[in-house]
Amino acid sequence: MDDYRDPPSFEVDRALTQLTRSRALDGVRGVALGQFTGFERDADDPTLGGWGIHDVLRDRLAALGVPVLGGLPAGHGKNPPTIPLSTQATIDAATGTLTVLSAVV
Prior knowledge:
Blueprint: H1 8-21, E1 31-32, H2 40-43, H3 53-62, E2 68-69, E3 89-92, E4 97-100
Parallel strand pairs: 1-2
Antiparallel strand pairs: 3-4
Helix pairs in contact: 1-3
């Protein structure tokens, strides 16, 4: 028996589908995405129909109808910046900027 595991992009697709169907993303006003390391092999896998992580994210998040900004230097890359949670931020997808207001008042 082979030790089969879904490609990482399938796992992201499954998680986003669950969040959408459970309505957990209702009220989201924008999405900021960082780096996705470890997904490189998916883009070259012919069994996935040419879909990589960026295709999955674009497809699932477009349905939210909110600004989506990707490629931020955050996530699991080397030396990611700290991005505070539960603070106000402005996403400008046209200019590719995320402006986070100070988390300390």
